[in-house]
Amino acid sequence: MEIKKDYLNFAVGPVMMSDSLREMGAEPVPYFRTDDFSKLMLENEQILKELMDAPEDARSIFLTGSGTASMDAAVNNVFTPDDKLLIVNGGSFGHRFCQIAEAYHIPYDSICLEAGHTLRREDLEPYDGRDYTGFLINMNETSTGVLYNMLLVGEFCKKNNLLLVVDAISSFLSDELDMAQIGADVVLTGSQKALAVPPGVSMMVLSQRAVKRIESGHPMCYYLDLKAALKNQERGQTPFTPAVGILIQLNARLCQIAKDGLETERSRIRTVAEDFRRRIGKYPFRIVSQSLSNTVTPLSPINPQVSAYEIFRILKEEYGIIVCPNGGEMAETVFRVGHIGSLSVADNDRLFAALDDLMVRGILHF
Ligand SMILES: *Cc1c(COP(=O)(O)O)cnc(C)c1O
Question: Which one of 86, 113, 212, 266 is separated from 354 by 20 to 30 angstroms, measured CA to CA?
Answer without folding.
Answer: 266
